[in-house]
Amino acid sequence: MRNLFSQIITLPFLVIVLSLMTANQANASEWQVQKMSGDVWVETNKPTKIALTKNTVLQNGDKIKTGPNGRVLLKRNKETILVSPNSLIGLPEKSAEKGKTIILQQMGEILLDVEKRNVKHFEVSTPYLAAVVKGTQFRVTVDEEGSKVNVLRGKVEVSDFKTGQFVLVKPGQTALVQSKQKQGHAPGLVLKGAGEKATIQKGSTKKQRVIPLKSKQFRALKNKTQVTKLKNKNEKAVSAKTTKQFKNANKIFKNKSQKSKLKLTRKSLKKLKSNKLSK
User: Fold this and answer.
1) Sign of the CA dihedral running 31, 33, 35, 41
2) Burial, 152: exposed, middle or buried (Cβ in 10 Å; 0-12, 13-18, 19+)?
């Protein structure tokens, strides 16, 4: 009877422990908001835009958007993504193949620190290029002119969707693809920077995962940024003016206080003299 009772108690306890372990493992494999500041939103599969909060766990299909003063640090185990102001990144709606991570970047700038492995396991996909890595630290920028990848540590394979070209980018080098072909420039990948450069190779074209924004959307974003900068500048000017006024007022108060003390001292001396004379 005692054994039966102990089994009844033990089974639910084991179920709870196993479920907690499973939840912890799931959280360890997902991107979580570590730090944030300024205006930051998350767009889910639902037609709503919610203000992002610390410790939020991102789900498939979620998009993060930062305002002109917004920044976010995402963390997953040892890997991090620092999202700069005026950026839009997201996760694919469907999970990538096992052991692989895909980040979708539509605009702005992100700094990534990716765990080193023996296989290519991490990809950042933009409207014009894809950056695939085994493990490294690199920066990806997307603007109206195109996309570029700047490598800080390790090596990154960058490929151009339109031409199929690809190249291995080393530390201190930048690979870029322009949104529009400029006169006198050949289409495709461009590799810049210090050190020995790898040869740009030919490959097959690929379908882009991310739709590029229109010029109007980038201009609207720039206008918002300029308005925010002007607002911050005005606030600083007002704050400086208020501080100056306070200092001036404090100075006047001190002068008045010193004058009052001087008057009191003179009155005291006169009173002392008159008392001596009366004696």
Assistant:
1) positive
2) middle
> Which tens digits make up the pLDDT trace of 100-156?
999 999 999 999 999 999 999 999 999 999 999 999 999 999 999 999 999 999 999
At a CB cut-off of 8 Å and minimum separation 6, what does 111 contact? Answer: 81, 82, 84, 137, 138, 139
Distance of CA 103 to the CA centre of its chain: 14
Query: For tokens 């008159």, what's the residue?
Result: 274
Amino acid in the structure at residue 59: Q
Paired residues of 191 in beta bridges = 175
DSSP string, 205-255: ----SSPPPPHHHHHHHHHHHHHHHHHHHHHHHHHHHHHHHHHHHHHHHHH
**pTM of the predicted protein model:** 0.71
